[in-house]
Amino acid sequence: MDQSDLIKRIAEKMQISRTVSQSLLQAMLLELCELLKKGEAVSIPGLGTFDTVIHKQRRGFLPSGFQSIGQGYAIFPKRRVPIFRTAKSLHDEVYDLEAESTRL
Amino acid sequence: MKSANKITYESFTQRVANRAKVSEAEADAYIHQFSKTTGEALEDGDEVQLYRFGRFVTVHADERPGHNPRTGDAITIPEHMRVNFHPYQALLAAVNWPFRHLRTRMLSENKTDTGPSALIWLLLLLGLLVLLLIGFTINREIFGRDSEPAKPVASSINMESSLSQANPVVASQAPVLTEDASNRADSASTQLNVATTMKTIVVNKGDTLWGIAASQWGDASWWPVIYAENRAELTQHNPDLIQTASTLHLPVLAGSVTQPTDADLKLKTNAYRMVG
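Output (C-alpha cells, whole complex):
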C-alpha cells in the first residue's frame, strides 16, 4: 500500500476530502521529520514510537569498495539514525499472524 | 527504554494542526485514524510506504533459543511476525544532520591506519634529506676548499679558536715580561721575536683587505686572517669598511701562504668563521 492508497482509505473512513487528507498526512510526516532532526522522540498511539539513537564510530568491512579503491576495511563515522519501536497493541496483533494463517 | 526528550502527544497534535491549518481535534482524530489504518494494513501482511519518510513492513522471525530476562531460564522463542520500519534516505539525512560532515575512511592493508598519508610522509622525508645535502655541500665549499686533508673534529676546532684568539694577547704582553725578567724560557724569547717581526701597514685610500692580502702574501684568499687579527682595534666590525690612515698588523704565519702549516690552516678556518 503506497501513500495515495493510504490517503484514499483515511479520507473514506473520516469522510473528508482527499486534498485535506493529503495535506494533513504531509503535515504530520514533515512535523515528525523535523522533530527527529532535533533529536526529539514522538510516540503515536496505537502505532509506536519514533526515536533517534547515536551509533558510535566503528571499523568494518566494505565489500562494495569505496570510490575507486576497491573493497577493504574502513572506519565508519559516528552517526544518528531514526528508530521505530512498535506499540504493544500492534506488536501483539501482528505477532501471531503467521501461526494463525498456518493453522487455518 | 524511555527517551528523556520525548515530546507529549498533545504538543505533537498542536504542531500538526498549526502546520495543516486545522483544529487540534481534527488533527488528533486524523492521527488516530492514520495509526488505525496503518495497523490494519500491517495485520493483513501488507506494507505501508510513506513518501520521503520510510516504509513499514512485516517480517517473519524464525524460532530461536532465548532467555527469560527475569529468571534467566532458557526458553524457546516461537516463530512470529514483527513490524519493521525502514527509513528512507531523506529521513536518514535529516536525522544525521549533526554528523553530516563526517565521512567513511578506507583503511590501508595493515587495517590500523588510513592509506594515502604514508606517501606524504615519504615526500617530506625526501625533501628534508635534499635540504641537508645542500647545506652540507655549501659548508664544504666555504670552509673546506683549501684544508681538505686536515678536517678536525668540531670540539677541537672550538678549543683551537679560543687558543688562537688568546695568542696575540700573550704576544703583546710578552715584551713587558721579558724586559722585567731578563732570563726567560726559550718559548718566551721566540714569542718576543714574533711580536717584533709583526709587520704594520697604514691603510691608504682605496685599499681593501683583499688587496692588502694579495699584495703582501700574493694570495688574496687569506684576507680574513688580517681581519681576525685586527678586529679588536677596528672601529667598525665590518670587513668591508676599514678606515683610511688606520694601522693594520699583519699576522706572521708559521709557514708560508703557498705551503701553510696546520696551525695556519686552523687560523684561516677560524678567520673565515669570523667574517661569516
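The two ends of chain A are 25 Å apart (CA to CA).
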